Prior knowledge:
Pfam families: Glyco_transf_9. The chain is an alpha/beta fold and 334 residues long.
Amino acid sequence: MRLSAIGDVCHAVAMVNRIQTAWPDTEITWVIGKVEYQLVRLMPNIRFIIFDKKRGKAAVDDLKHAVKDEVFDALLMMQVALRANLASRVINAKLRIGFDWTRSKELHWLFANKRVASRKHAHVLDGFMDFADALGVPSVEKLKWDIPVSDEDKLWARQQAQKLGKYIVIAPAASKAERNWLPERYASIADYIQQQNVNVILCGGPGKLDRETADAIKHHAATELQDFTGKTSLHQLLMLLKHADLVIAPDTGPAHMATTVGTPVIGLYAHSNPLRTGPYNNLDDVVSVYNECIEEQKGKSWRKLPWGIRAKGSHLMERISIEQVKEKVSGYMV
């Protein structure tokens, strides 16, 4: 059970692929959010149950009906939100595996009868892998992400890539405006990249914040930017990210989607610890002011605070300078 969000579902895919590789005959049912399902819907040998949280109690009733008369060997409770905890009660499972005591929140521990092993300072993806460990699934030397897309979406992305040539993606919008970098600074980086004869494209979802952020960047940019914001399905976006040479993004879903297809990511962080939520394969490439922000606010290093604690404030991302990002980007311009 992992309902949301896109980035976390990307992390969960690696764990699911691990189970499928080691135990190919395992029957897997995934309870997942409505939007997130669109990303993973073509994964083979998985039965998906869509949980539309906007439907409230009706969503729980739908889930109850979908699993009626079934008894699962194990339920992996990979979401600590109270809504997910309460919904999980309608699922009958011999083992109800939840997070360890330290990572349990919102009464999560009440709904589990087994917990994963305790782990200190774990990335979210590693935390999900703890569930496979709890099941006894053999470990893997190399992570695998297999998110199938249609041939039509692959062809569409190849055609776009052929038109664009060498390109870098800026996916500028997180779920909350305070986690976004300044549009004029994104624009400055985009101009720098295009001066190196590399194209820049903007990507994002159909939401208002994504649209406004993309428009603001284009307004400040001195060069013309290709804009795919709100114009792609999740699968088309995934393939656009795959053909890119680099992705620049804050703490947002496309950063983790890029990781699943092997494209390097420069992540921009101020509110959350990138060691916990950063692009898994590129933690050395993040530009982060989180450490200084959290120490100023709490009076101590993040190492002495509860894991995952967030820094608060609407202007923290302003501390990330153009030069810091340009320095990281320059390493990919050679």
